[in-house]
Amino acid sequence: MDKILLREIDSTNSYAKKNMEILHDRTVILAEVQTAGRGRLNRVWVNLGKGNLFLSFLLKPPVAVREHYTNLTQYLSVVLTDVLADYGIEAKIKWPNDVLIKDGKIAGILSESVFKGTKFKGLVLGVGVNLNASKNMLSLVTDKKITSLNLETGNKIDCNHFADKLVERFFRTYDNFLNSGFSFIKSAYCSRLSNLGCEIEINVNGQNMKGIFKSVTDKGELELLHDGQISILRIGDIL
Prior knowledge:
There is one protein chain. The chain is of the alpha+beta class. The chain has two domains: 3-192, Bira Bifunctional Protein, Domain 2 (BirA Bifunctional Protein, domain 2, 2-Layer Sandwich); 199-238, SH3 type barrels (Roll), CATH 2.30.30. The chain has seven helices and twelve strands. The strands form two sheets. A seven-stranded mixed beta sheet has the order 1-2-3-7-6-5-4, sandwiched between helices. A five-stranded antiparallel beta sheet has the order 11-10-9-8-12, with no helix packed on it. Helix 2 crosses helix 5. The protein is globular.
């Protein structure tokens, strides 16, 4: 495994994608400061500055394209909740891959595939985690509830130590996931889900749907019971 440390970059994901062909499989890119991070659904990831985690995994799986590569964000969300548990924190997952502490979002995860023409070159799995922030800083974010690990634990967090734990935990079972797919994490994933079994409202391609979050399929999709029928959702944003 290679590791690249950057002082400042627009986005660790963008850096990984630009350098996909020259970097090795399982390269980890870390930045002290990220100025233009992105989240799922083209959202901007809030930049809380130094002391927080900005990390991307550059991955070149041996099999060109497999359906469960799309579940890598869910795999990473489970890994992240395991690491947070080492800090005494019980985190939940908001389908599909947002990681929450007491309803406050602490992390964002984004996966991007890289092609050259029609040839699959690899994928980049990025994660941003709020590790060190002040209450005043978080109060500037008014459109959603967010939190940081230092405020939840009452202690300053060593970013490098956290990153090492996350990377080690990720690659510890990464090959198992590649071989088995979502079924490898399904039990752990479902046990950490928020809203499972509850009535939810979810935005799908600009339209809102209400129903009961019944379960998750063997492919990581959301099963929504509404109007007496089950809808299988691959994408969506729980409101």
